[in-house]
Each structure stands twice: as structure tokens, then as C-alpha cells.
Amino acid sequence: MPADDRYSRQVRFAPIGEEGQKRLASSRVLLIGLGALGTVAADQLVRSGIGFLRIIDRDFVELSNLQRQSLFDEEDIQKNLPKAIAAETKLRRINSSIQIEAKVEDVNPSNIEDYLGDVDLVLDALDNFETRFVINDACAKHHKPWIYTAAVGSYGLVMPVIPGTTPCLRCFMGKMPAPGTSATCETAGVIAPITHIIASIQIAEALKFLTGNLGPADIRLTAYDVWSHRFQRIDVGSESMATCPVCSERTFEYLDGNPLRTITLCGRNAVQLIPGVKGDLNFTELSKSIGAFGSVQFNEFLLKCSSPPYEITVFKDGRAIVKGTEEPGLARSVYSKMIGL
Fold this sequence. Notes:
Layout: H1 8-11, H2 17-25, E1 28-32, H3 36-48, E2 52-57, H4 74-78, H5 83-94, E3 99-104, H6 112-116, E4 121-124, H7 129-142, E5 146-152, E6 155-161, H8 169-173, H9 185-188, H10 192-210, E7 221-225, E8 230-234, H11 253-256, E9 262-265, E10 270-273, H12 283-290, E11 295-298, E12 302-307, E13 310-315, E14 320-323, H13 328-339
Parallel strand pairs: 1-2, 1-4, 2-3, 4-5
Antiparallel strand pairs: 5-6, 6-7, 7-8, 9-10, 10-14, 11-12, 12-13, 13-14
Helix pairs in contact: 3-10
């Protein structure tokens, strides 16, 4: 297969052309989140021919993901694969010439700056506002362009952010919404068409930026409802930057805060626990002790123990997701009892 044939149709698109394709080949992108939005975005990015893609996700593949998360299949569930690892495997099959770096991590104030320092663009494909506001702060601090996306039900949003030039997420939303006040895919559902459309719009904006075709004057908040076919392009307004603590005062309260140690995963009846100090768990040894509580499965990436009414999934660094409760105190108790940490 001729090397230049892979991108021939994209190169023939005049706004990209040969020069744009060269710029893509030297581009470095960070994609945070590998759910419905992230899998579509990752797939399109590697097909476009970017040079480097870093993908990060804290979760593992579950049956409910397959309805819309297009890089995963039933075999990934049977193998208990983290999303980042499963996605990396599929993406390498799609384009072996792309440099892909997969991280099974929780992005938070303690590590976000490590991940975005060497990239040209950051893509948000998350399902929670806590991490988005951390990304907004970190990108503003380091002057890294990023693209916000969200989708729930049949409705989605996209907004590129060029720090110091265009309004940021704080300009648009102000304070972070209180927990439980925003609809989620677990509480309101979501259909695959909107996630694919919103992710595709995000990648179109990414391609424009990376090839030098996205000017600040062209940036708007895009909103679309695939069920009603209502489409809006909204000017957030640069005047909002004058009163934004991030844009006007360079105050990064979400980045400067402590890493989130306990996170209730809204609508999933689950809590994520983040250890104060990272470890490197020996799953073979842990399986012997935790096996007293229930059935255990593990691989090189994670260990699962089902102990009704709870199920605990433990990652190599000690991070865990406890299913069966949304009460942080109870989740910590289950974690301490079963893991002994």
C-alpha cells in the first residue's frame, strides 16, 4: 500500500492539502476520556494522520458501553480490559504509523500538567465537570488550546478554547455545577448518533486548528439536538473574559486544589477512590487475600472482586472503583476491609 495513498482523499480537500497534511503529521494531541465521545474522536484522529496521540482514561470496558463506544467489543469485556488499553490495541490496527501512548490514569490536579506539556492541542471527551474545570485551568496556565465537548440524551455541545484569545469554560459556565444538578448519561440516557456527531464536530475543529484554518473570530459554542434537529452557533462573547477569574486574574482554583480523593460516579451507584500515595499492587498476592470476600478475576491491568452487594475494581496504582454505593464513607470502608489499605 503506497504511503501517500492513505491520506489522498484528505489531501485533495483544498483547505488541508499537502501542507496541511504535513502539519498534521507533526502534530501532538492529548485526548482525555475514552467513552462515546473519546472513542469516535480517537478513531478519526488516527485516521487523519496526526503524528502523536496520548489517550487517557481511568475506567474499564463494560457491557453498557457497547451501545455507543465504537472502539470496543465483547472480547474487551471478557478480558476485563481498561478502556485505554483496549482503545490503543484497536487504534494501532487502524494506523500503525501513528505514535500512540495510552495511560490508565485518573486525570486530576496532581498530574494534568505532566500530560499536556508536550502537546499542541487537548481534547476533552469527559463525562464530568470536575475534570473539565481542572483541564480549563491547566490549559489556561500553560496557554494550551483545547476543545470542550459534552453529550447527553440527544443533545451535545462543542467549543474550542484558545487561552488568552477566546472565552474559556469558566467564561461560559461560571462556577462548576453542583453534584447531581446536571443530567448525565446514567440519569438521562444517551443515544449513539449525538455522541458521534459531536465528536465529529470536535475533530473537524481540531483539524482546522492543527492545519492553521481555525481563526479566533470563527470560534463559537456549537449546540445540536439530533432528535429535534435544532442547531445553534452561540457567540459566548469576549466581554465575559473581563470578569472571568481564569482569563482576567489567572486564578486557577481547580488546578491549585487538592486532587479529588473520593469521587461519586453520578448515576452509576459507584464511588472512585484515589489513594494518597501511588503504589504498584501485586495482583497475584492481593487475589489470595481478597478472595475471602468473593469471586476474583484479574489481569495485568486490574483486579475485580464481586462481593454482593458490592463489586470492587482495583487498578495497579491502588485506585479503586466500588460499585454498590454512592456513599463515599461506605465505599472507603469497603475498600479498606477488602484491600487492607
